[in-house]
Amino acid sequence: MSETQFKIDAGVLTSSKAAVLVVTSAGEVLASNPSAGVLVEAIRDGHTPEVMGYIGRAAVTGHPMNESVLLPGIGGPVYYELAILPLASPATVMVFGRDVTLERNLRMALVESRQRYKDLVEISSDFSWETGLDGRFVFVTPRGALGYTADELVGSLPGRLLAEGHENESSLFSTRIAVEDRETWMRHADSGQACVLVSAAPLLGPAGEWRGARGVCRDITQVRERDAALAQASNRERLLTYIVRTIRDEVDPANMLGAAAEATARALSCTGCQIFRAEGGHFSLAANFGEHGLAESIQPMLSSLESGASTAEISLDGWQVLSAVSRYHRDANGAICLWRKAGSALFCDDERLLILDVANQIGIANEQIANHERILNLSRTDGLTGLFNRRAFFEEMERRFNRLARDRKPAALIYVDLDNFKMVNDVHGHQKGDEALLALKDILVHNTRPIDLVSRLGGDEFAVWLESADVEVAEKRAQALLEASHPLASFSGAPEKPLGVSLGLAVHDPRRPETLEGMVARADEAMYEVKRAGKGSYKIARPVQTNEQAAP
After folding, report:
1. Contact present, 71 and 48 (Cβ < 8 Å)
2. What residue numbers bound the domain in which 447 lies?
3. How big is the CA angle at 431 (ends 429 and 433), to the nearest 5 degrees?
4. 219, 248, 281 - which closes a domain
5. pTM summary value
6. Residues with Cβ < 8 Å from 472, sequence gap 6 or more?
């Protein structure tokens, strides 16, 4: 290099704030300024073979080069942008280097920040968008929105996404003020609907002029559906609690179903409710409330419940009817039917779920009522024969006797006692004695009417109440019982002591005042008169004497 050229290079070296050095293609640094320390050190220590490659290529080709390199530094890697200029001297170049570490780090931080923002926007929303001056989409998240692709939406008006009835909310996509979490309904590409939260802000130019809007949308359909389901479940729970409390507050089991029918009809805003109980494989009406159609009209629906269906729903004769079977331990024990006038609100899915819950409670109530009836029946019936026991017979007979005075009708009471029954037990045992008692029960039941009462008072004593029977009817019935009792002789303990019956009859004459106790005493006395007279017959007790007849 000539002295003049070097002076020019030296001038350049001293006047430049950038890193400047003159170096040969062999790596010899001929000159450098203070800013080139990092480059000089890297070349001398051989840490930058790629720099030497660039220098050698520029020196050989005579063409300048611009490259970026990463150099080791005290505080970490240093990034340089290099401009390599061939000089007139052979195999010599001038290298200008600019430290761009800060710029590069800032650029990387900006890129990372933008990526982070993009990721957060995509994570926190289902799609982002931007509209222009004409209100049309100019940008939509690349993955699209609501089943539409981004290409399908860009250039279109946002109104195409809004569900019917929400078209006026298209202003959210051209907003002049910031909005946050505004709820609206949109349409999926498959025609379904989605509940969406919209947050948006206006885009303003340098002079504050409006240029469009941008925002994000988040699909909260599942959240709203879950909230609605929870609200419906809470409402069902509230109504069910009201119905259950109403049933449980009813002390008398016989009134439980009536209370349940009323509470259910009111809770579900129905005009009527009917509750059925399963008896003999069929449903029989057990409770009624409100206005409803004929029970006969719903027999086909009840038949479907009897066949195993859980619910049934029909429209007939101006009524909507919803029904459900009630169960206890999986066994059907009844049904509940709700009635609404045609034209009223149709039964909804929530009400169908509720009636199933109510039916479960009705199933428990039906079982409780059945248990109560069984217990009551056990307390009122004789364990062997199944007839009324003494207490139940006298309770029912008292009710009927009190009615005689109002109806002015006659009635008869027959006391029945087995003759020589003790000998049956002594000779044949108590099992044979029980068979004899059952045989007498059959005789009494088969020779009386359904409206009559038959009871086992205890031991070998029975009683029959003949409803509306006068003396003539009572006597014919007594004769029929005597004739029907002849087969009892087969149970006899000894031929000389045949098993038979003695009957004592008391007939109530409505024209003659008498108490029930008096009528019972007359029948009992007549029966013992037969016993004393030789057994195996009947006797009608003397009529009640009036005061005039009793006077001397």
Report:
1. yes
2. 390-549
3. 75
4. 219
5. 0.54
6. none
Domain membership of residue 286 (yes or no) is yes
Residue 263 shares a structural domain with residue 372: yes
Number of structural domains in the chain: 4
Check whether residue 424 and residue 483 sit in a common domain: yes
For position 89, which CATH number holds? 3.30.450.20
Render 44-110 in DSSP notation, one character per residue.
HHT--HHHHHHHHHHHHH---EEEEEEE--TTS-EEEEEEEEE-SSTTEEEEEEEE-HHHHHHHHHH
| Paired tokens of 169 | 């909310």
Amino acid making up residue 10: A
Q: Would you say residue 385 lies in a domain?
A: no
- Counting Cα atoms < 13 Å in the Cβ hemisphere of 335 gives 30
What is the β-pairing status of strands 272-279 and 282-290?
Answer: antiparallel
Q: Which pLDDT score is estimated for 231?
A: 85
Domain's final residue, options 66, 86, 101: 101
List, in order, residues 6 or more apart from 428 with CB less than 8 Å away. Answer: 491, 493
Tell me the CA distances in angstroms from 55 to 28, 93, 192, one per residue in order.
11, 7, 67
Q: What is the predicted pLDDT for the residue at 27?
A: 85
532 and 482: one domain?
yes
pLDDT value at residue 15: 52
- Is 424 within 8 Å of 436 (Cβ atoms)? yes
Q: Of 72, 74, 66, which is closest to residue 96 (Cα–Cα)?
A: 66
Mean pLDDT, each 10-residue run in order, the chain (552 residues): 44 66 88 86 78 86 88 79 90 90 82 67 72 93 88 92 87 92 90 90 91 91 87 86 86 85 91 88 86 77 77 86 89 90 86 90 88 83 92 92 88 95 93 95 94 94 94 94 95 92 94 91 95 93 68 42
